[in-house]
Amino acid sequence: MCGKHKHRSRSRAGRRAPKRAEFLSALEERQKDLEQEIADIHDLIKRLRDEAETTPATAEPTPAI
């Protein structure tokens, strides 16, 4: 039977769709996590810029021995 394939129906039997409130709560939690991650990145960028301004620029960094 070449060329004939049986297609399985993708029923949602046994799978429960999340309730709207649960979905909203999960999205809000994810948003808080992302906002914290953005704040951490912002702090890191600020620190690196501040360090670059206070460190004198040299042609090549001296190797640490």
Supply the key terms.
1 helix; elongated; mainly alpha; 65 residues
Summarize the structure.
The chain is mainly alpha-helical. The protein contains 1 helix and no strands.
What does this protein look like?
This protein is mainly α and 65 residues long. Helices cover 54% and strands 0% of the residues. It has one helix and no strands. It has one helix spanning 20-54. The longest helix is centred in the middle third of the chain and has 35 residues, at 20-54. It is elongated and about 70 Å long.
| Gross geometry | elongated
What level of helicity do the residues show? 40-55%
Number of helices: 1
Rg, rounded, reads: 27 Å
Overall structural class, as computed from helix and strand content, comes to mainly alpha
Low-pLDDT stretches: none
Sketch the topology as an H/E string, one letter per element. H
**Sheet having the most strands:** none
Ends distance? 72 Å
Strand content: under 5%
Number of strands: 0
Return the average pLDDT rounded to an integer. 83
Helix/strand layout:
Blueprint: H1 20-54
